[in-house]
Amino acid sequence: MILLVAPLATLIYMGLADPLNLLSIFTNSQFTQSLTLTFTGAMTAAALGLLLGAPVAYALARGMVPGWASRVTSALLSSPITIPHTVVGLAILIMASPLSPIPLVRRLPIVNSLLGLVLAYFIVSSPIAVGSLVQVFERIDPVYEDVGLAIGMSRMRVFTKLILPMTIGEVVESYLLAWARAISEFGSIALVAYYVITPPLFNYVYPTSVLVWYYYETYGLEPALSYAAATLLVSLVVLVIMEAVRHYLNRPING
Length: 255
Known about the structure:
This protein is mainly α. The protein contains 13 helices and 2 strands; from the N terminus they run αααααααααααββαα. It has one domain (about 20-190, about 205-250): MetI-like fold (Orthogonal Bundle), CATH 1.10.3720.10. It has a two-stranded antiparallel ribbon with strand order 1-2. Helix 5 (about 85-95) crosses helix 7 (about 115-140), helix 7 packs antiparallel against helix 10 and helix 8 runs antiparallel to helix 9. The chain is globular, with a radius of gyration of 21 Å.
C-alpha cells in the first residue's frame, strides 16, 4: 500500500501546493479538450470491445470453438497484454503506411486521427473486457440455455435474450474496466495519435497522457506537475465513480 500510494500522494500534495494554478488547469481549454478527446475515444473503444468481444467470450466459455482453435483464439485475444504497447503502436503505423499489404487500410485516416486513437485504445483494452466476460459466462448455469434451446430459441437469441440480461451488471463492469484501461494508455497512442486532427471535433488535441508527457518533454518537470496532478485527480474521480457503479450492480449472477 505504501509503495502504491506514496508516489501518488506526493504528486497530489505538490499539485495542491498551488491550488490557483491547479484550478487554472481545469479551466484551461487545452486540458478540457484533451479530457474530452480521451474520454470519447476510450468510451468508443470500450463499447466496440464489448460489442465484438461479448459473443466471442460466450463462444469460448461454452466450448463452441474446437480445442486447439480455442487455445489459439484465447492466446491471440490476450496477446496485447503481454506485447509492449510501443510495439502495438508501431504495428498500427506499419499497417497504415504505404508498406501495408492491406490496400483498404492504407486509405484510412488512421495516423493522428480519432480513428487511430480508438483503434489503439481498442487493441489494448479489449482483452480486459473479453477475459472478464469469459469468467462471467463460465459461472452461468447452462440449464438456462438448455431450456431456451429446447423451446426452439436460436443460440444467438439465447445469448441476447437470456444470458445478457442475467449478466448485465457484470457486462457493465467489464465495459468500465476496458474504459479505464483505455484512458490510462500511453505507449501505443504516443506513436499513432500523438495529437488528433479530426475536424470539426478536434484540431491538434493531445490525449491526456500524451499532454502530460508533452509538457514534461518540452518544459521540464515543474510545468508538467500541475497537468499531472490534475490528471491524477480526474483518474481518482473516475475510480470512485467506477466503484460506486460496481457496488450498485453487485448482485448474484443467477439472482
